[in-house]
Amino acid sequence: MPIIEVEGLEKTFKTRDREAGLAGSLRSFIAPRYRERRAVKHISFSLEAGEVLAFIGPNGAGKSTTIKMLTGILYPSGGKATVLGLAPWRERRKLAFRIASIYGQKSQLWYHLPPQDTFDLLARIYELDLAEYRKRRDFLIEVFDIADYIRTPARKLSLGERMRCELAAALMHKPSVVFLDEPTIGLDVIAKQRIRELIGQLNVEEGVTIFLTSHDAGDIEQVCRRAIVINHGEIILDTPVAKMKRDYLKVKTVDLLLEEPAATLLKTDEKSGEQRLSIQLPFSIHEELLVTEGIQIMKARGHGLKLEIDTSRCPLEPIIAAVMQHCHILDMTIADPPMEKIIARIYGEQTQHENG
Amino acid sequence: MNIIVADHRQSIRQRVSLSLRKYTAVLRVSVANNLAYIMEVVFRTIFLVVFIYVFEQLWKTTFAVRGITALDGFDINTMIWYLAATETLALSLPQLTRLVDEEVRSGQLAYLLGRPCSYVLYHFAQYLGERLVRLVLNSAVAFTIALIFVGPPPFTWMGLLAWPLVVFLAASIEYVVYFSIGLLAFWTEETTPFFLIVNRLALVLGGVLAPLEVLPQPIRGIALLLPFSAILYGPARTLVHFQLLPFCWLLLQQVITIAIGSLLLFALYRMATRQVNINGG
Q: Measured between beta carbons, which residues in chain A are less than 8 angstroms from residue B16?
């Protein structure tokens, strides 16, 4: 039986229009004009217990609005939803005992106090038995490796340390469903990785259902098994993450800072006149090879080189190994395509599918 | 039947006890949070010292120029102790309206609304914790200054015992008023003007600088009827000039104000939560 069921859920916000200029301001004051914005448009889906769902989309797509309706904070304009058999906006307090929500850009820790104080307070708010709370707290401190920080005021913690404490705080009452809204936003690569591992561990060890929103493709690839893509308030894709990876997350952007000028790695293709990467791949018997398959030179300026590599046609490791053979890499960043690009591709393929 | 009723009572008792523990814990954490930056709170009391000094000089000159020893039953000693009592309370008001306003605008209220507790009572407990720290500090400083300037206070035991109760009720009235103004952030773009109007009215008509007895009629009569007098004038007068009848009248005025204010606050809160429009989604 599904743990979350959503049927035709809708949310429309009414916003006041502001005209520019002094005369416009006066007009807006005397006769205000309102505009309706449909943030979520009739969406339906369900989620089974223990699933890890990525609810993704660009900024303003309706992800957070959906989370806030499912946690009972927002009243929908239409449709139905149940979470653990409860109607969120009607039975918010009852539901609150069984769910947790974490907002990456907001904090629930008391700013001047150590996280330990927030944990103790949450134990009271969630009406936990004190002996059980202590056991749970000690367990979470160990799992999240936060023993060194729980007596440091929250304002003195780094973002990564704080986020681990936020996660521990949210899990104190053993929720069945955890809503995570952009949990890795603003974190550095190592902190992001740690948070992703912990979310995965939480799902495997405690069977917690995870509902994660993000516009970082890395969160989805590493943590989730199913992805729902939402754009302009509509669901445009509901698919297993493995399929999504295969179809839409295969292109990686590799940004390199080289010791030598980037031009030393490039040659101009005589036929097309385009610049190509000129390296010797480890498996190649040729001394030098103009690599064209699946690699696009995005930018080559001075010592900087930006490549877009289609990993389904050309694996990453041999390319990087070959570049390293040719010159010394001072710095390197591998990034997923931005969410906007993924969505553009999904739309592109859907249009092709419909036309074809 | 009796067993069901007893079980029901037991369950209600348990719920009340759990809720009480919940909000007491919030109050405790709020006290600890405010003690974490106690030096800032201490520095704020410097204003109190300057204020009492200036008014002590002013009242002394007024009394000397007019050649009187008392004004409407208040001599210089009572007047300065009255001032110390009103200032203790007036300067201990936390920035509640701004806190609620910011929570609404930033979307931070999502955390509190998603918890198994009342948003209004959670903030009330937090507010009381902050106010308690400020009140204790302010009263320690103000009463010491008053003692140095004009000698021992004119307090009676009855006044001293009644004061904490009426101060608590006055703080509750202010909570209801300023929390409601903060909730206006759901509809308006700026709540500061509403706060400033109410706060300045409370200071002028609430008798912060002088007891309402010194005001001319009909302003005195109007001020006494308004709820502002139950916030500053009433509690300060109870402390320096305790009389049973005015005290009972004050209690009644405070309880009625809180009851009506709470009804309005919860109605406003209900309307607000039905049209939450949280930023970032």
A: none
